[in-house]
Amino acid sequence: MARERQRFRIGKSIDFIVGSIKVLVVNGREIGVARLRNGELRAVMNRCPHKGAPICQGIISGVWNASAPGELEFDENRDVLVCPWHGFQYDLGTGTEVCWKGASRLRMYTIEEGDGEVFVFI
Amino acid sequence: MAAQRKTQMPRPEAATTLKIFDCDVHPVPKAGLESLKPYLPKPWQERFARKRAIHDGLNVPIRFRHPNGSVVRQDARTPEGGPSASNPEYLVRDLLNTHGIDGAVLNCFDVGGLLSAQSSTEESIVLAAAYNDYFIEEWLSVDRRLKYAPAVPTQDPASSAAEVRRIGRHPQVVAVFIPLVNVLMGHRYYWPIYEACIELALPIYVHVTGIENIFTGTPTLAMGVADSYIERYAAVPQVGMASVASLILSGTLEKFPKLKFIFAEYGFLWLPSLFYRLDRTWRGLRHEVPWVRKAPTEYLHERFLFTTQPCDEPDDPKDLVTLISMLGPDLLCFSTDYPHWDNDMPAGTLQMLPPEVRKAVFYDNAARVLRL
Question: Which among B16, B23, B264, B299 has the fewest CB atoms less than 10 Å away?
Fold first, then answer.
């Protein structure tokens, strides 16, 4: 039987700003909370699916694309978390690894925001 | 000599229906540059005569000469006593008929070194045309099973592209042989040649030239100059590794989405190591090369073939089956390298593979990539 998730208050809305990820310990687990460029919040386990690195200490960035060799483009509307160890990149919107067809993805937690308060379900 | 020829291995696949395409056979002109005279403009004939330009082999320094005197099998000399693989009728009998081979890609080994570094740029342009005309005229009409990968004068990509367009429509031309210079294959330097090949639906064929890291302008090998033939021979796969990585990471394969490549004689057991590294690193650093739109391994299977000879064989044949299954049976194409000393004949090559894999490796993969 699945364990029932508990609701934890983790801070005020103003504590979470676009472009950064805040690492918190909630009920004994390290999670990172990030605000996306579209204003939504995401909570992820601070553990890279690749080698277990503290991924929330990595870079949050957009994504480079290219229509041809040398034709560099930058998509700043996509929020990507880059692991500090091997550089694997995960889309914070979906949790999936960027450009990789495998099953690798971030462990994500449900997060709620209301009346200036933020809650996570673990 | 005749008695020796009768002792050759019998046709190995006679009892089977296995079709065999040999992706690496090395013809030579009967008498070096002298044979090319009718195919050279008169002023160039005079120039080469005055220079006493005799090209009857690679002409490498002593330290890199084959320890037994030649890279060419002396038992394959022609009945009239000519150089091995200098008589098309005899080659058809000695290689194709004897070993049940259904088709073969001819590429002149000696011309690779000659065009990439051993002649001047202007000389290489004239010589490439002469060699190509010689083989087209004197070899391809002998047997329809003989196919040809004409060499281009890589020192000048524009002239190389012109040479592809000049002769590339011949129905027995099935690929274009680029003798590599010291420029990685993904570099824009080669783009004019690639464009011409795309126009004519011809794949690129690259082959060890035998003079890598010996003459200036040739592909360099890591850590300096080897001290012997065997040491250089063992290091040459580096060129294949660097070239494949360059083609993928440069975005050149995205620039030319239909272009395919055959790597001859660079080996293939290094592919798992290279591609595990490429895929893993691309997952982390793809933003440095965002024009690489999919995992390197995907490009590998879509665009590349590697000849089987010289087949690096583990002691236990089952290990080779495992390694080839790791690669995937779609990456390899059979080759003999006739008439060179380290040639692999069908009867003694990859016998341990399952029948469906042998079918792919010995014929189907080549038929899929070459313009047959």
Answer: B16
User: Chain B residue closest to A67 (CA)?
Assistant: B291
Nearest to A69 among B251, B283, B285 (CB): B251
Q: Inform me whether the C-beta atom of residue B297 falls under 8 Å from chain A C-beta atoms.
A: no
CA B339 vs. chain centroid, Å, equals 13
Long-range CB contact pairs, B130-134, < 8 A, 24+: B130/B36, B130/B39, B130/B40, B130/B44, B131/B29, B131/B36, B131/B39, B132/B163, B132/B167, B133/B39, B133/B167, B134/B29, B134/B35, B134/B36, B134/B39
Among A69, A73, A99, select the one facing B286 at the smallest CB separation. Answer: A99
pLDDT digits (tens, 9 = 90+) for A70-102: 899 999 999 999 999 999 999 999 999 998 888
Domain boundaries, chain B: 2-369
Compute the residue count for chain B. Answer: 372
Quote the CA–CA distance of B74 and B222 in Å, as a whole number. 32
What is the residue-averaged pLDDT of chain B? Answer: 93
B2-369 is a CATH 3.20.20.140 domain: yes
- Non-local (6+) Cβ contacts of B294 within 8 A are A99
Instruction: Express each pLDDT in B46-101 by its tens digit.
Output: 999 999 987 767 789 999 999 999 999 999 999 999 999 999 999 999 999 999 99
**A-B C-beta contacts closer than 8 Å:** 47
User: What is the pLDDT, as a whole number, of residue B7?
Assistant: 39
Delineate the domains of chain A, giving CATH numbers in brackets.
Answer: 7-121 (2.102.10.10)
